[in-house]
Amino acid sequence: MKFPTVAICEVNTKNELGEDVEAYVTSLGKGIREEYNFDVEAHISFILFPSQYTHGTIKARCLRYEDCDNCAKCPKTGYRKLVETFGANCTEIFEQCWLAGKEFDCCQYFLPLYTPYGTCFMLNSLQNNHPGSQHWMSLELDRSQKPELQVVTSRSIQVSLLNEEDIPNTALKGISLVIQEGQDRALHFHSELMANDVDVRDIPIEARNCRFPDETLPWSLYHAYSFSTCISDCTRIFQEEVCKCNSYLLNPYADARFVDCGLAGYSCLEASSMIIPDVKKVMRFNSSRLQCSCLPSCAEGDIRTVYESVLRFNPKGQEANITLVMPVWPTDQYRRQVLRSRLDGVVSIGGILGLFLGASILSGIEFIYYFTLRAANTALMARRAQQLKQT
Asked: Which of 24, 142, 244, 285 has the fewest CB atoms within 10 Å, measured from its CB?
């Protein structure tokens, strides 16, 4: 069996951002009546942990301080730089990792990626990795190995189980679990893979109603196609059409062609309910450049939650421990096959001709040959014979 892709995203469950963020907010100024501006700190928390956004908070936390000269104000620009400065890196989050009881280097295989959920560390994702690289881990297990992945972190996290081409997306419901510091949790899941026949690629995309991961859309910013990345791309285009900028999270590789939103841009997105939009709204959106029509991935399998539990909880604990287990080995596999290939069509045509006309495709070829190549060859030979007689 093959263990699915895993995404680890940091979450803020204690509303604590650290001394460096507090020093930064203090350097910006004060509150209206307080020495410390907690509203600006909350706005920076939204920048670092966008999944915890609540509609209306940007206006409530930031606009009230615009006319106050001595007050700390929400940063106007440079949100991507703030995440790079104050966001946690891999070594600050991960402590230990095991797969099938064998320990491995977490930061060699969990690679960072900007996603709609925030900064996540992805294990074997086609969006920031590829098979054969030094960071691609073999997740193929045999029956002598226990299908279990255990991760210990020093911060609260959200764990998501994904297909290789997918990303965590706040607009889509997926298999995920939040583990707070001091918790030891287990998630039991079941996974069934998808296998595609070779002939499936010969079928037009409109007919097979899915796209392979390497069939990326021309306007996509992601390295592989999936339904979740298509929704992210459509959201980015929607934001750009409405507010002339987009969230830095939807531009994961910092493509210079697209402008990251600042405070004014996020205020516009909030007024249009486009920071965490409804999927149906995004799917109905028709841009002047394209129509958003997202198909599923041809390679996506089915991952389902079986059981989740809290094994242990220590309120004073400093570690978060998650164990991902597949309790039963998969016995089924989805298969997408072509019922009638091009060769089948040729065979069917030949059979119909043979049944109703007593002929086959070969007979048709012979018919064409008899009245074209053979007729021309016969005429040419007759002309040569006539010339020989005259000489």
From this structure: 142
Strand extents, DSSP E, the chain: 5-10, 94-99, 102-104, 110-115, 118-123, 148-153, 157-162, 175-179, 183-192, 194-196, 302-313, 320-325, 334-336
Question: Which contiguous run of DSSP H or E holds residue 363?
Answer: helix 361-371
**Residue 223 token pair:** 């390295």
Residue range 97-133, pLDDT digits in tens? 999 999 999 999 999 999 999 999 999 999 999 999 9
Radius of gyration of the chain (CA): 30
What are the sequence ranges of the domains in the chain?
1-12+93-339, 342-390
pLDDT tens-place string over residues 191-213: 998 899 888 898 889 888 999 99
Between 279 and 97, the more confident residue is: 97
The end-to-end CA distance of the chain, in Å, is 82
Q: In the sheet where 148-153 sits, what is the strand order?
A: 102-104, 94-99, 148-153, 320-325, 183-192, 302-313
Q: What mean pLDDT do residues 10-38 have?
A: 86
- pTM value is 0.84
Distinct helix (H) and strand (E) counts, the chain:
13, 13
| DSSP secondary structure code for residue 209 in this structure | T
Phi, psi (deg, nearest 5) at residue 49: -130, 75
* Residue 327 structure tokens: 């309790």
